[in-house]
Design goal:
mainly alpha; 68% helix
Protein backbone atom coordinates (compact mmCIF):
# COMPACT_ATOMS: atom_id res chain seq x y z
CA UNK A 1 0.00 0.00 0.00
CA UNK A 2 1.41 3.40 -0.93
CA UNK A 3 1.59 6.36 1.43
CA UNK A 4 -1.31 8.10 -0.33
CA UNK A 5 -3.48 4.99 -0.01
CA UNK A 6 -2.58 4.67 3.67
CA UNK A 7 -3.57 8.26 4.36
CA UNK A 8 -6.91 7.73 2.58
CA UNK A 9 -7.83 4.93 5.01
CA UNK A 10 -8.65 7.56 7.67
CA UNK A 11 -6.94 5.44 10.30
CA UNK A 12 -5.71 7.82 12.97
CA UNK A 13 -2.94 5.46 14.07
CA UNK A 14 -1.27 5.94 10.68
CA UNK A 15 -1.64 9.71 11.04
CA UNK A 16 -0.13 9.43 14.50
CA UNK A 17 2.77 7.40 13.20
CA UNK A 18 3.64 9.94 10.52
CA UNK A 19 3.35 12.87 12.92
CA UNK A 20 5.51 10.80 15.28
CA UNK A 21 8.20 10.66 12.58
CA UNK A 22 8.01 14.45 12.39
CA UNK A 23 8.38 14.50 16.19
CA UNK A 24 11.64 12.56 15.86
CA UNK A 25 13.11 15.30 13.70
CA UNK A 26 11.74 18.11 15.88
CA UNK A 27 12.87 16.55 19.17
CA UNK A 28 16.41 15.89 18.03
CA UNK A 29 16.88 19.17 16.14
CA UNK A 30 15.32 21.48 18.73
CA UNK A 31 16.85 19.52 21.59
CA UNK A 32 20.28 20.20 20.12
CA UNK A 33 19.39 23.84 19.38
CA UNK A 34 18.32 24.49 22.98
CA UNK A 35 21.20 22.69 24.65
CA UNK A 36 23.23 25.90 24.58
CA UNK A 37 21.07 27.73 27.14
CA UNK A 38 22.55 28.63 30.50
CA UNK A 39 19.41 27.83 32.49
CA UNK A 40 17.83 24.54 33.48
CA UNK A 41 16.44 24.31 29.95
CA UNK A 42 19.57 22.25 29.22
CA UNK A 43 18.04 19.35 31.16
CA UNK A 44 14.88 19.48 29.07
CA UNK A 45 16.98 19.72 25.91
CA UNK A 46 18.79 16.52 26.79
CA UNK A 47 15.49 14.84 27.65
CA UNK A 48 14.07 16.00 24.31
CA UNK A 49 16.98 14.46 22.41
CA UNK A 50 16.53 11.17 24.30
CA UNK A 51 12.78 11.27 23.60
CA UNK A 52 13.49 11.69 19.90
CA UNK A 53 15.79 8.68 19.93
CA UNK A 54 13.24 6.52 21.77
CA UNK A 55 10.48 7.58 19.36
CA UNK A 56 12.69 6.38 16.49
CA UNK A 57 12.35 2.83 17.81
CA UNK A 58 8.66 3.20 18.66
CA UNK A 59 7.64 4.51 15.24
CA UNK A 60 10.04 2.65 12.95
CA UNK A 61 9.65 -0.99 14.02
CA UNK A 62 12.22 -2.58 11.73
CA UNK A 63 14.99 -0.74 13.59
CA UNK A 64 14.48 -3.14 16.51
CA UNK A 65 15.50 -5.89 14.12
CA UNK A 66 18.63 -4.28 12.69
CA UNK A 67 19.99 -2.34 15.69
CA UNK A 68 21.62 -4.14 18.60
CA UNK A 69 19.30 -3.41 21.54
CA UNK A 70 18.79 -5.23 24.81
CA UNK A 71 15.85 -7.55 25.32
CA UNK A 72 14.57 -5.26 28.09
CA UNK A 73 14.53 -2.23 25.76
CA UNK A 74 12.92 -4.29 23.01
CA UNK A 75 10.14 -5.42 25.38
CA UNK A 76 9.65 -1.80 26.49
CA UNK A 77 9.16 -0.71 22.88
CA UNK A 78 6.82 -3.64 22.11
CA UNK A 79 4.52 -2.46 24.91
CA UNK A 80 3.55 0.47 22.68
CA UNK A 81 2.05 -1.62 19.86
CA UNK A 82 -1.48 -0.47 20.68
CA UNK A 83 -3.22 2.89 20.45
CA UNK A 84 -3.88 3.65 24.14
CA UNK A 85 -0.32 2.97 25.36
CA UNK A 86 1.06 5.11 22.54
CA UNK A 87 -1.34 7.94 23.34
CA UNK A 88 -0.26 7.86 27.00
CA UNK A 89 3.41 7.63 26.00
CA UNK A 90 3.22 10.70 23.77
CA UNK A 91 1.13 12.66 26.27
CA UNK A 92 3.69 11.93 28.98
CA UNK A 93 6.54 13.10 26.78
CA UNK A 94 4.61 16.25 25.84
CA UNK A 95 3.97 17.01 29.51
CA UNK A 96 7.69 16.81 30.23
CA UNK A 97 8.42 19.29 27.46
CA UNK A 98 5.63 21.61 28.61
CA UNK A 99 7.35 21.66 32.01
CA UNK A 100 10.35 23.31 30.35
CA UNK A 101 8.19 26.44 30.07
CA UNK A 102 8.51 26.85 33.83
CA UNK A 103 12.12 27.92 33.40
CA UNK A 104 12.06 29.69 30.04
CA UNK A 105 9.90 29.86 26.95
CA UNK A 106 11.96 28.26 24.20
CA UNK A 107 11.42 26.42 20.95
CA UNK A 108 10.99 23.22 23.00
CA UNK A 109 7.35 24.24 22.94
CA UNK A 110 7.18 23.03 19.31
CA UNK A 111 8.02 19.38 20.09
CA UNK A 112 5.59 19.54 23.01
CA UNK A 113 2.77 20.67 20.71
CA UNK A 114 3.55 18.02 18.09
CA UNK A 115 3.86 15.30 20.73
CA UNK A 116 0.41 16.37 21.97
CA UNK A 117 -1.02 16.19 18.43
CA UNK A 118 0.45 12.70 18.04
CA UNK A 119 -1.10 11.64 21.35
CA UNK A 120 -4.45 12.99 20.17
CA UNK A 121 -4.22 10.98 16.93
CA UNK A 122 -3.57 7.74 18.80
CA UNK A 123 -6.31 8.55 21.34
CA UNK A 124 -8.78 9.22 18.51
CA UNK A 125 -7.83 5.92 16.90
CA UNK A 126 -8.47 4.15 20.20
CA UNK A 127 -11.77 5.98 20.80
CA UNK A 128 -12.97 5.12 17.29
CA UNK A 129 -11.95 1.48 17.92
CA UNK A 130 -9.58 1.55 14.98
CA UNK A 131 -7.05 -1.24 14.96
CA UNK A 132 -3.46 -0.14 15.47
CA UNK A 133 -1.91 -0.08 12.02
CA UNK A 134 1.69 0.68 11.23
CA UNK A 135 2.59 2.32 7.97
CA UNK A 136 4.01 -0.16 5.48
CA UNK A 137 6.35 2.59 4.29
CA UNK A 138 7.99 2.61 7.73
CA UNK A 139 8.18 -1.18 7.91
CA UNK A 140 4.94 -1.69 9.79
CA UNK A 141 3.13 -4.16 7.56
CA UNK A 142 5.28 -7.28 7.33
CA UNK A 143 8.32 -6.55 9.41
CA UNK A 144 6.42 -5.49 12.53
CA UNK A 145 4.72 -8.88 12.68
CA UNK A 146 8.09 -10.65 12.53
CA UNK A 147 9.34 -8.61 15.48
CA UNK A 148 6.32 -9.53 17.60
Amino acid sequence: MSLAEELKTRNFSIYGQWIGVLCIILCIALGIANIFHTSLVIIFSIICIVQGLVVVFVEIPFLLRICPVTERFSNFIRFFNQNWPRAAFYLGMATIQYCSLIFMTTSLLVPAVFLTITAMCYALAALKHQEFTGSSTLGGAGIARQIL
